Amino acid sequence: MSDHRTRRRKARISTTALALGATAALSALTLTACSEDSSGTGSGDDGRLDVIASFYPMEFVAERVGGDLVSVTTLTAPGTEPHDMELTARQTASLSEADVIVYLEGIQPAVDQAIEQAGAAHTAEALSLAGAHAEEESGHGEEEGHAEGDTHAEEEGHAEEGHTHAEEEGHAEGDTHAEEESGHAEDSHDGHDHEGGDPHIWLDPVAYAAVTEGVAEVFAEADPDHAADYHNNADALIAELNALDAEYEEGLAGRTGDTFITTHAAFGHLAERYGLHEEAIAGLDPESEPSAARMQELHDIAEHENVTTVFFETLVSDETARTLAGDLGLETAVLDPLEGITEDSPGADYLEVMRANLEALRKALGADAA
Questions:
Q1: Which CATH code of 3.40.50.720, 3.40.50.620, 3.40.50.1980, 1.10.10.200 fits the domain covering 42-137+197-253?
Q2: What is the four-CA torsion angle of 218, 222, 227, 229, rounded to 10 degrees?
Q3: What tens digit of pLDDT does each residue of 304-325 get?
Q4: Helices 319-328 and 292-304 sit at what angle, rounded to 10 degrees?
Q5: Do 54 and 74 form a contact (C-beta atoms < 8 A)?
Q6: Which residues fall within 8 angstroms of residue 143, CB to CB, at 6 or more apart?
Q7: Which spans does this entry mark as compositional bias, Basic and acidic residues (predicted)?
Q8: 0.90 cut: is pTM over it?
């Protein structure tokens, strides 16, 4: 009887040991799997803010504003053309786990849809951030204008006259500007229609500075303990962007022409900032093919505007650009829209590539001889 109880006790101990061993093994596998998964999505287990950026311009600003306090994962691999990029199932799942998502609406439809469905706690959408800054600046101007107008009306009693004059002035300027913009849009067919949502705002250093400020605000909301650090980092980048803006203003001041031809309509915001005129072979989608009529129109524009260079990009085919340049006896050069950094990029980061773009524009527009 004693031997029988002993055998039963040993059997129970063996069964318990097996169960404990299996549980430990399963736990180890689970921890390993979690660790491997987090390495691809930046889980923030190390105390850093887990940030997902949609593509390079958003990655750059997130890394500069966040510094060592953030772990940034980009959805778009280097060398990938971002416009038509599709997300993997793992990337889609990671969006709902991120602390902050930094993205730009309108350039990657698949990303926009996934972010909308993810329900992330904090998002920094670049177009909204830049737009809010522009509205704020416009509001300050209107307040000053209204104050001056009201004072003038009170002193002169010409409120109605002043209003009429302002309307006439506004309509005249607005109509002229609208006609110019309309003409440019018609000239380029698939070119920039800003009201249609040109998303390439990062190529305007002033707009990109506004995005930087907005990203710092969102990071501070997500991680209040380090708010001052985020704002200090943003201020440092904004100072560099302001310096870059000044370099463009000065560098393009002595140009002999304003018109340049590009592969796709990525440089409208930059052109508008510095008083240039972009003519795009394709539209906002770099993969679209120009019509025969558009190619003929570009021939005419190049001859009429004394265009010297047809620009192409590093992430899309240069075949059409080289064909057009060959037909007209023009030069070709890279004007990089900074949608991604590769070993073929004319610089290692945003600031270097933007300065390379400036030199390319200076040469093409005759400013390097000034």
A1: 3.40.50.1980
A2: -90
A3: 999 999 999 988 888 999 999 9
A4: 50
A5: yes
A6: none
A7: 133-198
A8: no
